[in-house]
Structure formats: structure tokens, C-alpha cells
Amino acid sequence: MSRHRTGNRSNRRKRGLIRRVGIVFPVAVFAAVAVAAVAVGAAVFGPGSGAFNIARAVEAVPGSHTIALLETERAQLIAMTAAARTLTLVAEPKLASPAQVASAELSTGTSTGTSGGTGTGGGGGIVYVTSTPPNPNTAQSIAYNMMASFGFSPQTYFGCLQDLWNRESGWRYDAENASGAYGIPQALPGSKMASAGPDWQTNPATQIRWGLTYIKGLYGNPCGAWSFEEANGYY
Fold this sequence. Notes:
Blueprint: H1 2-45, H2 51-59, H3 67-85, H4 98-105, H5 139-146, H6 154-168, H7 204-219, H8 222-232
């Protein structure tokens, strides 16, 4: 009787253990999965989350079949970032100005002569100077309007003429140099300008007409004269 009760008690212990294990084991597995899910969520949605954090978070889950794909995407992203750093910005093309077009179309040559004598032109190329039309009723305006009659496009050549006579005389009709050069074009001697008109001493238009004739005959155009002036200090 005592032995029979002992056997029944042993059987009851076994059945109780099975019931407890049958409940506890699934609960333990569920808890482990939940902990892993929380870890993944914290890694993904935490500060600085991104493609790399997602990959690290998924790696925390053993046996995930997405690890290989994420590693491939990460490698591609690294390669794209490295390639982007090697790109260079190419400046937009600029349209050539009328002066640059004229410079390309004209052949360079040598010039001889100065406003007071003769000389040899420099070997450098012609430099073109851009400018805006001058104020009306000025000596510069007279020259600007007169240039076309000499075959000089004022849009192309006036900038050079302006710089040339700015340096030589400041565009003053009565400018006189100690050497005897006179007027806007600084003719040497000033009486040379009498060939353009008897009022050469006081009339800017007469002086400009003589000066443009002189420039065309010796330098071809005002930019040729200006290039020589820059190289030699006179023209």
C-alpha cells in the first residue's frame, strides 16, 4: 500500500514536470525572440539609423537570409560615394565677345611708325579692349562716330583707341608734351595735323581725323596701335 502510493506520487511529479516544461519552454523561446526584436528596433530607429545600422541590427539576428543582400547594397553605396567624390565641375562655356571674334579673324602682322617718327611693331598679338559708347558731345564721341568711315568697327576698336589716347593726352585737344607733341593724338610735331585742316590747334575733330589716318596707315587699326603703345610706351 505504501509502495503503491509512492509510485503514484512519482507519476504525478513526472506529469507536473511535463506540464511545467511544456509551458515554460515556449515562453522562453518567445521571450528570446522578443528581446532580439527589441534590439533590432533600437538599432534601426535609434539616432543615426541608416543602411549601415540596419545591416548591423539584422546581423544581430543569427541566420538571417537578408544579411548577404544588405552587405551587397552597402558595398554598392560605398562605391557610389567614392565615385561621387571624384567628380569635377566643368564650367559652362562662355560666348566669345565681338572683340575676341575680330581678333581670331584678323591675322597678326608687324607695324612700323610712331606718332612722331618710325619704329618696328612688337612681336606680340593684338590686344582688344571692350568698352561702352562714350558720352555725346565729347571728343571721344566724335572719334566713336568717325571710326566707321575709316573702316574701324567702333564696337570692336573704340576700347583700344580710348585707352591709347587716354594715356597719350587724356583726350585734351590742347595737350602739349615737352618734346613738342601736341593735341589728342600727340602728333610730333603738332603741325603735322595741318594736313587734316587749318584748325588743327583747336578743333578736336580735325585732330582725331588726322590721328585715325595715322593709325590706319601704320598699325592697321587702333588695337594694333594700342598693342605697340603697351609694348614700347609710344606709338
